[in-house]
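Sample entry (369 residues):
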Amino acid sequence: MSKTEVLLLYGGKSGEHEVSCRSAGSICRNIDYDRFSLRLCGISRSNRWFLQPDTVRQDACRDGDAVRIDEDPERELSGMPGSGFRTAHGVPLEPDIVFPLVHGTFGEDGSLQGYMETLDLDYVGSRVFASAACFDKRMTKRLCSAAGIPCVEFLTFRAGDSLDDLSRTVSQQISGAWPGRAVFVKPARCGSSVGVTRVETGASITESLRSALEYDTDIMIEPEVRGRELECAVTGNHEITAHAVGEVQPIHGYYDYRTKYLDENGAALIIPADIDRSVYEDARLMAADAYRACDCSGFARVDMFYSNDTNELLLNEINTIPGFTSISMFPSLCREYGISYTDLISLLINLGKDQGREVSTLRFDFDQS
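Predicted structure, serialized as tokens:
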């Protein structure tokens, strides 16, 4: 039986470029090479796409590190609508399926997914709408709230001409909405806690706004939830499986970018979460419901809080391309549920192929005669 050719996309023009390269390295080292042939496309920080020589994959497998990106102009790829990619010399590249492992902006926000559909290529993961909706934390909560899922409260603001004026407006609304509570200031569309700052009650919010505005024109403010930070892995297209629930316990402050990726002692990841069994099962149900509400497919990690003040679960956000190193939370939660990392990769590729077959049955023309 011939192998399925997988084109793995990694890197990208976002603050999560390095995270993506680390995730890609784990795929290289763990994919089932008896079933799949793997080719790599590294996307530079300037958003140029380069087909990688096989030595790049071999080095990642040998060194156990992030995959590098060789930016050789002779290997640059360009997209041809309706027919996949072409190399710099015009050679077609039409993989059986694309595995986008590009976190953050231009990878997780629907842009890349729309591009794959324009090229008529099947791919792993959520489609355009779900990717865009989940990347925008405001839209995620609006969709889930409409489906009756309790969510963390939020306020949203758009950048104006004056940072000082914006700061005054935000401070006034925070004081009215959540008096006496610390808040988190976030870019509305970003991931991996990039640009996120915790602000104590009464402290100036100006610098936090400035930091968030480096990554998005829209700002989201949420009150700090005193409680347990829970995460659940979900997979599936029509038939959805909520896997294990884990708990994140930051050692210093909150679960920011440094804690997630740079400080190996920055947080304890408790798998399975040490919580009451009824809360555990409710968290799995909420994760599956949120996945459906946002029309996700393939895979996602759903993040929640269990509030100490109200004893209720609150949806925080959904990540449609979560961190994917072998020790990241998403694959670890699946492993706890009984799916090995290698089998998980195979499952996600097959889910992408299933979705591609389903789309291939659709008509895109209309004849009234």
